[in-house]
Fold this protein.
Amino acid sequence: MAEEERIYTIPLRKKWLKVPRWKRAKRSIRFTRSFLERHMKSENVKIGNSINKYIMGGGMKHPPGKVKIHTIKEGDVVKAELIGVPFKKEVKEGKKLLGKVSSKEEKKGKEAVTEEKEKTKKAIEHIESKDNKRLEKLEKPKEDEKFLDKEKAQMIGERKIMRKSEKPHHEGKQDKKKE
């Protein structure tokens, strides 16, 4: 199953001394990944939780100086964990690993999928209806504005409506004196 198994001691200190304190753990993890890509000759590297917890254990500012790692290369995928930590097996769902599935269970599974599809369709329709209502509300004031414009046009025909900027300054003072 495993093509290649190797154990590495990765020196991190020289790399994280070159970056600010608050970036040290991030830089250590990036260097670990690039180290494994270079030495295992694969671009697909999966670093386990144990390595991440070990490097981040002292916080972002205080990563360890060295890390001992056990790696396995399966095909093109490289998996890495700390020494002494077992590799997690990937659990695949299906008839092969889980055994035979009865026809009743298959029907239940299909029914569950169709129910989920119906729920999503209803949710989408509900959202679309809300959007349509909002659009209708937005369009109504525009129609009202057109109506108001017609009223204003009629009023302008009866008497002249002027803006403040159009009025001469002396007219405003005369109106106040008369009152």
Remarks:
- The first helix runs from residue 13 to 16.
